[in-house]
Amino acid sequence: PKLTKVLLADLVDEQFEVMQQSAAGQSIELVNAVDQHAVILADRDKLIEILKNLISNAIKYNQPNGQVRVSYQQTAAQWTLTVADTGIGISQADQTRVFERFYRVDSSRNKQVVTGTGLGLAIVAELVAAMKGQIHLESQRGVGTSVAVTIPQSHATPDR
Ligand code: ATP
Ligand code: MG
Which of 26, 115, 118, 158 is the right S-S partner for 104, CB 3.0 to 4.6 Å? Predict the structure, then answer.
């Protein structure tokens, strides 16, 4: 895999720009809480694909005047990227299934939610597995969802 130094906050800003219109249409606030200096050694394309899918979900399944917040934490051993929303949430039963290909929560429970193929989270899960990482989803119906992707710092720390 081609690993490069990625300025994560910039990548998040780029995705926010792409999705700014759909977010504004629902009065959803996009918050980039990633440290401006945070550099990750990673496959840039995989990271973009992960961000694209998680942020698009956080916007699509949000509620009017909601918020999407992307944050980042790191330790010597691993880094974690979290996309949190104040959206419709996912029931306990559905939480175990949303990573399956083509699985979408019943559209009646999702209100009139928009289009999708049900592949986004399955793709994220594959990419994260390829990076030897883990996904942790927390959600509460009517309150929101947070998806955390944790990847080991299995490679040399890039120079500052
Ligand atoms: P695609 O991403 O392929 O365009 P999709 O968004 O329906 O379609 P996934 O991203 O795999 O597919 O998500 C699967 C299902 O999980 C969604 O249809 C939705 O019901 C639920 N879901 C995913 N993310 C969220 C979220 N942040 N809040 C609430 N429900 C979610
Ligand atoms: Mg999706």
Answer: 118
Closest residue by Cα to residue 82 from 44, 118, 51, 42: 51
**CA neighbor of 61 nearest in space, from 148, 149, 144:** 144
Check: CB of residue 29 under 8 Å from CB of residue 68. Answer: yes
Distance CA 148, CA 55 (A): 12
* Of 86, 88, 147, 139, residue with least CA distance to 112: 88
CB atoms within 10 A of CB 51: 22
- CB 122 within 8 Å of CB 101: yes
> Ligand 2 centre and the CA of 122: distance in Å?
9
Q: In this predicted model, what pLDDT tens digit does every residue of 17-65 receive, in sequence order?
A: 999 999 999 999 999 999 999 999 999 999 999 999 999 999 999 999 9
How far apart CA 95 and CA 116 sit, in angstroms, is 17
pTM given for the model: 0.94
Handedness of CA 65, 56, 61, 131 (dihedral sign): negative
The rounded Å distance from CA 76 to ligand 2 centre is 31
Ligand 1 atom nearest to CA at 99 = 11
